[in-house]
Design brief:
heterodimer; A: alpha/beta; Rossmann fold; Alpha-Beta Plaits; 2 domains; six-stranded mixed sheet; four-stranded antiparallel sheet; 11 helices; 14 strands; 30% strand; elongated; B: 0% strand; globular
Chain lengths: 314, 244
């Protein structure tokens, strides 16, 4: 089975655009997703994440631009893309009057899996997600977490080369989210599938994703590995002590490696450019008579990067 | 073909899980069974196997059964938020549509067959004198084909309406209005025609034998089924189904 394009990309889009009346939901999206990774697609509500997935699955036609998924031109062969990909969309899409096995069996039949393979795979996935003992229960009575796990199992059932997961942990409590995340991470690592994951949960994205993209109002704001994006935001240092006079703060602001300085209640917060060292600044503080008690330096989190990008776009 | 059967398999599974048609459930099915399988045959007596009225029942029963079910086909999936996942699968448009139509026809026609046989058993138990009371071959063929075609008519019209209806209730209401129009327009329209037109119509009708009538009505139903099904296929657009 051809699982990637010749360039080793699972997804490639060029100027992908989709308008709904006067609203531009996706605006000239040019994106490359390497095969075999978990790719996070981040953005606030209404930023175009779900529309992008629908375009990549050929469920919507683009207003302009093009997309290639697993080396297949979506505009020309959307049915082939859908055959090779799995999807957990905005809603679980489970038939609540049917049992877990029947739900999976239906999609296994749709994927034309042979009966024996289908049965074995259903058992494997339900066991992996801890649902095997409830396999004959109708899904309608299940908790949201269990339904979400079953929907992920359905997306992975036919061993797709790529799965789209549209906010899989949204509306789950923290315990259920963590359980699903862990199950997902183990399964993805084992099966080597490419995952296109949209989420609001930035900690989740940071933990699961090899690369992330941030979009707002349909436009791509940033893309790269989370560490690289975090590095763009720079490093934050916190100094505890006393003697943070206006003169000291002015001297710090004059340093080229410092971006912002703020002090209050014996606490000084300094944002540094990427790669900047803190030691010369500590020396400066001591020379200026500051009594330094503690210095802590930490990398910016993806959440801060995300919020900064959102602010910059306003 | 296997994709059509797959969709039909799921539809039947869901139907069995529900225990009957969506509106009346098991009770509605039992009532229909008692009326058409027991009560009416007992009331008609031996004429049950020869009366043209019985023939009308076998055309009408599947129409009723399928109409009660088919409104759910797409509107129900939309309401229960399973439609987009189904559309994101590899299934071709035609398989999704035909699978739902096939399941509805199988249900309506299959249940009609059960009542058909049960009615035959009832009259034979209650009124048999000497030999078995049986429908003639032509009666049986007309009932089975007629039932199949009216089930097809209701299923094709139903998916056409259900494709764009926001809710099952909306689809069911639209179908009910359409059925009422089909009954009331001829019922009130024909008497309102000029006397000369009515005389011509009657004369034309009298020239046809019963067999010719059956063939003519069947041909009209085949054309109507095909036209409605083609309209439904033309209306099936994944993007519209999701965005509606």
């Amino acid at each position: 089975m051809n699982t990637t394009s010749n360039s080793g990309l699972a997804i490639r889009t060029e100027g992908l655009t989709r308008d709904f009346s006067r609203v531009r939901a996706v605006d000239g999206l040019t994106l490359e997703v390497p095969a075999g990774i978990v790719f996070g697609f981040l953005g606030p509500n209404g930023s175009g994440k779900t529309t992008t997935i629908r375009l990549l699955l050929g469920l919507l036609e683009p207003t302009s631009g093009r997309a290639e998924v697993l080396g297949i031109d979506v505009g020309k062969e959307a049915a082939r893309v859908r055959a090779k990909a799995g999807a957990l969309l905005e809603h679980t899409g489970l038939y609540e009057r049917l049992s877990a096995v029947d739900n999976l069996d239906y999609y296994g039949r749709i994927a034309r899996m042979p009966a024996a393979d289908r049965r074995a795979r259903i058992q494997e996935l339900l066991t992996h997600f801890g649902l095997w003992d409830r396999r004959t229960d109708t899904v309608g009575g299940w908790s949201r977490g269990m339904k979400q796990k079953l929907a992920v199992a359905r997306a992975l059932l036919h061993r797709p080369a790529l799965i789209f997961l549209d906010e899989p942990t949204a509306s789950l409590d923290p315990v259920a989210s963590a359980a699903l995340r862990d199950d997902l991470a183990r399964l993805v690592a084992r099966e080597g599938v490419t995952v296109f994951l949209t989420t609001h949960n930035l900690a989740e994205a940071e933990r699961l994703c090899t690369r992330v993209a941030v979009i707002r109002q349909g436009r791509l704001l940033a893309v790269g590995p989370p560490d690289e994006l975090n590095a763009r935001k720079g490093t934050r240092a916190e100094v505890r002590g006393s003697g943070f006079s206006d003169d000291v703060l002015a001297r710090l602001r004059g340093r080229p490696e410092v971006t912002t300085v703020a002090a209050s209640d014996g606490r000084l917060v300094v944002d540094l450019r990427d790669g900047a060292e803190m030691a010369p600044l500590v020396t400066l503080l001591v020379e200026q008579g500051v009594a330094v008690e503690e210095v802590r330096k930490e990398q910016a989190r993806l959440e801060e990067v995300f919020l900064t990008l959102m602010e910059e776009e306003r | 073909m296997s994709d059509v059967l797959t969709v039909a398999w799921k539809e039947v599974k869901e139907l069995l899980a529900l225990g009957g048609n969506l509106k009346g459930g098991r009770l509605g099915m039992i009532i229909m069974f008692v009326v058409f399988g027991v009560f009416l045959p007992l009331q008609s007596g031996a004429k049950w196997v020869t009366s043209p009225v019985t023939m009308m029942y076998w055309a009408w029963v599947p129409l009723m059964l399928v109409t009660g079910l088919i409104a759910d086909s797409f509107a129900g999936e939309r309401e229960r938020r399973t439609l987009e996942t189904l559309l994101a699968s590899r299934l071709p448009d035609r398989a999704i549509l035909l699978g739902k139509v096939a399941a509805a026809i199988a249900y309506g026609w299959g249940y009609m067959l059960v009542m058909f046989l049960c009615g035959l058993m009832t009259v034979n138990i209650a009124f048999r004198q000497g030999g078995l009371l049986l429908f003639s071959w032509s009666f049986t063929a007309a009932a089975l084909v007629g039932g199949l075609l009216t089930a097809g008519l209701a299923a094709s019209a139903g998916v056409l309406v259900s494709l764009r209806a926001a809710t099952v209730r909306q689809a069911a209401q639209t179908l009910s209005v359409a059925m009422m129009l089909c009954i009331f327009v001829p019922a009130f329209g024909i008497p309102a025609l000029p006397a000369s037109w009515k005389a011509s119509l009657l004369q034309a009708a009298m020239t046809l034998s019963v067999r010719q009538w059956i063939v003519a009505v069947s041909a009209i139903l085949v054309l109507a089924d095909a036209a409605l099904l083609m309209a439904a296929m033309a209306r099936f657009r994944r993007a519209r189904l999701i965005l509606d």
